[in-house]
Design brief:
Number of strands: 16
Largest sheet: 5 strands, antiparallel
Shape: globular
Mean pLDDT: 75
Helix content: under 10%
Radius of gyration: 22 Å
Strand content: 35-45%
Low-confidence stretches: 1-32, 231-241
Order of helices and strands: EEEEEHHEEEEEHEEEEEE
Distance between the termini: 17 Å
């Protein structure tokens, strides 16, 4: 069981001038307006209110505020989005389910315009938004989108600005021997003005274990282990004191 001391131990550190641009427009300063999100669910830019589809879009600001890092984090924000198991082995055991429709080839999963297996769980970092389209999407996204489509839209390189950001996170897992900590970062490098740019994104994450593993060097020490401990002298495991 995890107890979060803070979702982020260090808030976003701006490494270079400027902030990464996002497709989702910020809400008015007065705080009374609604955020307008521009999506490309129909291969053209339009606001989410004008898309004639059952769609949920999570903007970069929402992903930041909710501290979303993986599928479980954003699936809870999208009605009808869950996961199931195919039983095809460890490599493809997980599959995305929309409105209860699960199985091989039933839900499309895209990173930008590239289809990828829905068994993978990409790290959510430096995204413009996440779009979840419910219902058959075969016309635009192929026969593998019978139940719907999930799209992760990344931040695109900026041709004119040199910028970057980094943020750290940390937490503690009860009875773990080490804390949980990680860092996400991105940097935008314009190479040729208005023609070419490079955007680099990376992350590192460490999660503490749920128990400490003790290796016995003397086989005679097995007699001193608790009754429920692993009797193998080369890999005895027990909770920390």
């Amino acid at each position: 069981m995890k107890f979060m001391f803070s979702r982020t131990l260090a808030w976003a550190i701006i490494l270079f001038a400027g902030l990464p641009c996002a497709r989702a427009a910020d809400a008015p300063q007065g705080g009374t307006g609604l955020e307008e999100i521009v999506v490309t669910a129909q291969r053209r830019e339009e606001t989410v209110q004008n898309v004639p589809l059952s769609i949920t879009a999570l903007s970069a600001r929402v992903l930041e505020e909710k501290a979303v890092t993986n599928f479980i984090d954003y699936a809870g924000q999208v009605p009808g989005l869950a996961f199931g198991y195919t039983g095809d082995g460890s490599g493809t055991a997980r599959t995305i389910s929309i409105r209860g429709i699960s199985g091989d080839g039933t839900t499309g999963f895209y990173i930008d315009e590239t289809p990828v297996p829905d068994s993978i769980d990409p790290r959510v970092v430096d995204l413009q938004r996440i779009e979840a389209l419910r219902g058959p999407q075969g016309t635009l996204y192929g026969a593998r989108s019978m139940g719907g489509t999930v799209r992760l839209i990344t931040q695109q390189p900026d041709f004119s600005r040199f910028e970057g950001w980094a943020k750290a996170n940390g937490s503690h897992t009860q009875n773990a021997d080490t804390p949980n900590y990680g860092i996400d970062a991105a940097v935008n490098l314009p190479l040729v003005t208005d023609l070419m740019a490079l955007r680099l994104v990376g992350f590192a994450q460490h999660d503490g274990g749920y128990f400490q593993r003790h290796f016995l060097t003397n086989p005679a020490d097995v007699a001193n282990l608790p009754p429920n401990a692993n009797p193998r002298p080369w890999a005895a495991c027990r909770p920390p004191p």
